[in-house]
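SUBJECT: A protein chain and its fold
Encoding: whole-number codes for local backbone shapes
RECORD BEGINS BELOW THIS LINE
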Amino acid sequence: MSAPTATAATPDLVTVNIDGRDIAVPRGTNVVEAARLLGVNVPHYCYHPKLPVVGNCRMCLVEMGVPAVDRETRQPVIDPATGRQKINWMPKLQIGCGTNATPGLHIRTATPAVRQARESVTEFLLVNHPLDCPICDQAGECDLQEQAIAYGRGRSRYIEDKNVKPKHTQLGPRVMLDDERCILCSRCIRFTKEIAKDDVLGFIDRGSHSTLTCYPGKQLANNYSLNTVDICPVGALTSTDFRFKMRVWFLKQTNSIDTESSAGANTVVWSREGQIYRITPRRNDEVNDTWMPDSGRLLYKQVRAENRLTTETPLAELIAQAKSLLTGAVAPGSSGMGDSPMGSGGMADPAMRTGAAAPSTDESSVPHNPHGRVARATQSIALVASARSTMAEQYLCKKIADQLGIPAGSIHVPAHLGQGDGLLVSADRTPNTRGALLCGLATGLPKQQLTQLAADIDAGKIKTLLVINEDLAEAGITSEQLAKVSIIYLGTHANATSAAAKVVIPTQTVFEKDSSFVNQQFRLQRSKAAIPGHPGTHNDLVVLSHILVGLGGHDFAGSPIAAWSRLSEETPELAGLDYLTIPETGRVLDSTRFAHLAFPETEGLHYKPAAERQEESGARMQESEARP
């Protein structure tokens, strides 16, 4: 089992009063977070909900009071004027980020003293801050800009020269530092030390001459370095990839998922006019907190990669060719397309069109058996599906296999494994292995090498392959073996399999279609289309739906909603779930049916393998039984 089953303990709630309003929060809640629950903004720079508190910036100063108690009797002191317990207010302001909720705590965030403190801190921070706002990448999402509007003087009383600090310092391959903009909040230092476990950043010198730098001989080069850019409250740290590319207020934000592994970090895709400019993490306290790996941020480059497959051939013609191969209308060895699906520059060649008349797509031309399946020697067909496909796509692949009567032994889902990093890149380098298990496409854990398929091809048992976005060469199938079979390839990028295919149907990336995946926690998550499909490509679900209809199957109209209506009916773990109502934070599914499987993932952020969880649960039970 790969999802937690223990229910969370009921929190110990305490009542605090913020600006005259009571709110019940778990004991120990940070005052900044408690105020946020009431819609009260306590400005801050150094505080971050997922990092240790240091209290550097002093911007979150508030007035704090506690219920008065008689020192001798320890009884509450009642205020005669109000009839309530008197509140003793501390003579000096306290930092909100360093204050946790306790019973009866009183906080004031909008008094003249608090405002004066914020104005003083803002003026102090702006003394040496450069006037870079018109050219700064952080413009539009800069905390310092916002607080300068709210608490700035509008003019400077400082007549001395500003300190000059290093600019355009390369901290690592993906992060650039402008030290003049740094306000010494130390967020980046705490992140690299506490989260990434790569302690490479620190401050040097003193006072207004303090600067951020890497330790001698080290670089900020870990796979989580760009998270320092995300959490930098000003424009001191910028991404070398996004730097000077686009103003953020022009960009559209779309919720998505990092599909590089089964960790399934939640992300936001930033795009404009059909082009993606950056990917940033989206907060999900159950999956990735507010972090994501750098490698996942670069996935958008695959949309316009040089080896992206496209075609000018009409989809109806491509579907007809695929149907012909699957139903035996095209004999093995003959070509339903050009000899090579690739033209110059790595893009699909218009010469891919076949000169022969396209076979009829009329459903009546397909012979059927009494059970509705296509009447042909289906034992010679194999399906290679993908754990990178969405839930709906995997479901339709299973339906196509059922329609063709392909036995389970001829349905293959290759595994893609690597070394997990203990955070948000897991050992399973696909986003939806568990989805394939849930919908019945895979009956066990995928294997990296398709040795059985290779043996079947060599034995002449397999004549036709339907391949969904997988390169068989990576799975151990040789070029000689690929030449022995007729391949129908659905995929996004050119590879050895697409080069050997008889029919190539270019499909779309995760950024171009609505998707759903099940991560290592068995958490169902949804990703939305951020940009229109690349010209010359087709939605995978539409293609699979057309193929299924051509084989006499149910018409899902290429819609994830239509596919999900049937999928949820046929899959017990999805019963009652609707595609459009999947929560933004996902939904954990029952994984009991797969408890016997040894998944490859090791411990990561918010994930522990089933065996480790069972050991911890057993240890807790023993401790509980041992207590008197």
Remarks:
- The first helix runs from residue 31 to 37.
- The first strand starts at residue 13 and ends at 18.
- The mean pLDDT is 89.
- The radius of gyration is 30 Å.
